[in-house]
Amino acid sequence: MINDFFNLIFPRLCCGCRSALLKNEQIICISCVVGLPKTGFHKDKENPVNKVFWGRVDVEMATSFYFFSKKSKVQNLLHHLKYKGVKEVGFVLGELFGFELNESEFYKDIDFIIPVPLHKNKLKRRGYNQSEWIAFGLSKSMSIPVNTNSLYRKSDSETQTKKSRYNRWENVGEIFGVSNNEIEGKRILLVDDVVTTGATIEACTQVLLQKNCKVLVATIAYA
Ligand SMILES: [Zn+2]
What we know:
Structural class: alpha/beta
Bound molecules: zinc ion
Strand order of the largest sheet: 1-6-5-2
Radius of gyration: 18 Å
Helix content: 25-40%
Shape: globular
Number of strands: 6
Mean pLDDT: 92
Order of helices and strands: HHHEHHEHHEHHEEHE
């Protein structure tokens, strides 16, 4: 009753389409959940996200949940996740994504889910790592533990991931590092919000490969 009253005055809005959420909806409305543009890439190794890494770095499999386009609902969701403090968007999308990955023959026998880490300065500014919240959602639906204490980011600079696209061999370990032996030889699901050039994921994967890991990749959106 009181909740209904507050909803009337301050309606909770869907982070995808801005329509008022129904009582049983959280963060994202049902019509967004049903209608967002899924890629279906997790079923096919010859998908465009996986191909981003071919000839660059030994990623076992890569996929994205949704297609990204400008001014789309997917963009709205990522905007809320990254810039408006609604970290729960990551959890909800991660959980939904996990149900799909559970149906994929390629995403099996994974030991740890590892979110792409933020540098500690950026983490302080944003207050949370958006990819970590995606990882928590994936962890729930896939029943795989999240590891956030092994892979870390050394460099604060965004431009450095771009540089590494061209000088990648010299730069292995320059941007990311591994701080303990917990993930040695493990099968890792590396998680990020968006894949575009693949440079960040490539840099992470390089250091994980040095620890004899197998690396699979999952991102919410493919731009
Ligand atoms: Zn919606």
